[in-house]
Hints:
- The protein is mainly beta.
- Helix content is 0%, strand content 48%.
- It has strands spanning 4-6, 14-15, 28-31, 35-38, 48-55, 61-68, 72-75, 86-89, 92-95, 104-111, 118-119, 123-128, 135-138, 144-146, 151-161, 166-171, 174-175, 182-185, 193-201, 211-218, 227-236.
Amino acid sequence: MIYKLILCSLHILHAVNGRRGQSYLPVQDIVSGDEVSFPCITPGDDDYIKWKFQANGSDIVIDAGLVYPGGIVTVFSQFDLPPGRSTLINGVFTITDVQLKDEGDYWCEISTVSAPSVLSDKHPLHVWITPQEPVVTGLHVNGSILEHTESPVARCSSKAGKPHSDIRWMNGTTGVGIGQPVVEKNSISDQLWDISLDLVLENPSQFGDQHEFQCVISHPAYKGVDKVITFSVDVLAT
């Protein structure tokens, strides 16, 4: 689903003459694969409008797109891969398929042949990565545990998310288990995170045999709709 986020208010451009530096607008969090738009003033017939990009943690500033006088538009480098991934229309720079590599700061620059350049404030963009489908793995043979024995029963895992997911074990509407979550960097990318949480029962009883517990996984990329996995516990008499 395309989620189009437009930064609502047009910002005031200011001259680059040392009177003040660029300010930062509020951080925008976008799910990878969604769409984001950054506004700038509509250029005049004699204006050059150039969108700039600086990746997080980098000193390198690159040109993302440029409108030449007369309305000739060019989108550069990563923002035009694949061709058409980004557009620049009436000063508004739009990325139609946001990727992790797009995370950073954006601003526009207006110039003419006869006037000094002016810069907009910066638009910080953070990119959320949807984690892999979560899984629950039983930690005992045949999924059976002994009654009256504290035991880790099952492990719920969510991998390769940014940020990491939140996981909780539930018994209906009540939180359950005494396990602690384990959070670590993903083995493929150090920008992604894995998390797991064991369901640990302190004093299981045969009265709870075949009782169902729910692992509930939350992540910003799920947009308020948690994922739920049910796990059934088989308690054996000692």
